[in-house]
Amino acid sequence: QVQLVESGGGLVQPGGSLRLSCAASGSIFSIKTMGWYRQAPGKERELVAAITRAGSTHYTNYADSVKGRFTISRDNAENTVYLQMNSMNPEDTAVYYCNADIVRLGAVYGVPYWGKGTLVTVSS
What is the pLDDT of residue 96? Predict the structure, then answer.
């Protein structure tokens, strides 16, 4: 089986920082794209950041609301993606979900996998 496990969520004060991690494990052949989504109460799930590998080059994409504050990075050897969140504000409060496009061993195409989510609360 393939699974994604997030960690690093919790309570942080406005202006503070958190670092989220997501590790993929299982019968994995390759992972092209990994990213973070979030969903606040009463709102739709939205893309926060994504990172894609094309050869030896990594491309990143950020939501306008987090650009300049959040940084996504990836450890290919460990199939792990990170989200460094700085200068956090209450609007960042949400459940954060890890997402990855994973090609399983013996498969041709990748399919999306989701973590169970980790709660991030920004409050004083």
Answer: 98
